[in-house]
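User: Structure tokens for both sequences below?

Assistant:
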Amino acid sequence: MTLQHLKYVITVAEEGSISKAANKLFISQPSLTNQIHEIENEYNIKIFTRTNKGIIVSQDGEVFLGYARQVLEQSNMLDERYKSNASKVLFSVSCQHYSFCVNAFVDFIKKYDSEKYDFSIKETETYKIIDDVAKLKSEVGVIYINDYNKNIILKTLDERNIDYKLLFRAKPHIFTSVDNPLAKKEYVTLDDLKDYPYLSFEQGDNNSFYFSEEILSYIKKNKNIRVRDRATLFNLAIGLNGYTISSGVLDQNLNSGIIGIPLNVDDYMNIIIITHKNILLSDMAKYYIDSLKKYISR
């Protein structure tokens, strides 16, 4: 089996049709069918099942495709890293919308500054963070778990061959405008918040309570606004006296006009670092994680 065989299988799965995949790959349909049969015979599995509406991926096929995508991702990373004589320094992080992740990333760039580099930090949806780490698009991911979502999240991590370690345990806070009438309170309750707009991060196709970035997402709110980026969320918090629920770790230099207030609930957020089980952490990843610890310990 070759990398090209893996590309064939992945394309067929994406297109849901042998003929469409053959057109996309610029090969004949019989040739593609034979290639798929060769792989199935080599590994003694049935990757695809034919139906009246086309083909679907079998249960064995889903597992095979998971490994195939990982292999191709690693191959692409090797190409990017070594096929250029003047290779760039590469590193990527995917995380929920935490300012301490940005702070640590700034330190990381200062440490690994060079003539050429390709670094990325992606504040994105919870499932996308897990997917990025599983497919080696990011070496490090940062998300939270608690008693409510823990079983679902940890099951998802295990299925995607992802390891995790606790970064820190945080008492939930609300982030809101310094001009919010609640800003002078020592702490707030859920009842205090009922008349204020609740701001949360959109989770795309996985917009369930379990993959929400905000703790207590399952509790009904009267006023809901969903956004995709941190700047928009904080602008709405300032303009509308809205609030979101997060870890309480806030950088005032990055988020001026915003205050964190303890939320009086019997719950905690466990912020975790996720990494791929089969990949040894690079020195860059270790430095980034050490930088995270520095900012959350303040």
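Moving on to the next sequence.
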Amino acid sequence: MPCIEIENLTHIYFPGTPLETAALQQISLAVDQGETIALLGATGSGKSTLVRHLNGLLAPTTGRVRILDGDVADKKFRRQVWRRVGLVFQFPERQIFSATVYEDIAFGPRNIGVIGTALSERVSQAAQTVGLPDELLQTDPAELSGGMRRRAAIAGVLAMRPEILILDEPGAGLEPRAREIILQQVKELQRVQGTTVILITHHLDDAALYADRLVLLQKGRLLAAGPTGEILSRYDLLDEADLEPPFTVELTRRLAAEGLNLPQTPLNPAEAARLLAPLLKCVKGTVPLAHKKT
């Protein structure tokens, strides 16, 4: 059942002025509860504008956006939807301002009336979800590594227990291993709690690993939406969206150019290895053995 329904969404910045810009044009999209969606597109494609409609920061110029059980055009609903839709901005650690990690994670829940043991439980659970050790909760966030500060910032959103979690480039500026850990933990949250996750990323390798469906935007328009494997196998779409394909997809394309066609497009290295194994055996069997030296 859809928890997000977008119908003919158009958003215009500075309407009626010389700076008028159509950031989104006629976007229609539905997202089911519990899905992980990767929102992809080049800079200026409209990704950030779109997700700001999903937690009430923006209202449509025209069209309709329904989130959970409300319409974001309703100002009353828009004022409280942030409690149910968590948005983690790019570089969220820059918004940390509390003296300790604990206080920063507790800030949101405390502001909606969660206190005492219930508050401590929320902070602890959110910290555990992102792999933040208990001994770091009383630490000054400034003393943490970049990856740990990112986890603390994400934990602050998770402590609100949102039904929908939006992550804007959660791995930006992090080493690959730190990015991988964060995304694995978010995927586990989605699996265990049924949280709907919308991931904005320019790393298509991440999208291939963690997303159920991909949504491609181009210059404010919906270019394509569909299952991850189906979209990634469309090289024409990736080229049109000006996106660099994942390593395994590019490998598949290059093999096909040499006449070696895989039965499907692999989405991760392990899958690529499985699909390549039979081909490698065939190729090996056709190569004559080198003559032994006498």
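User: Anything stand out in the second?

Assistant: The mean pLDDT is 87.
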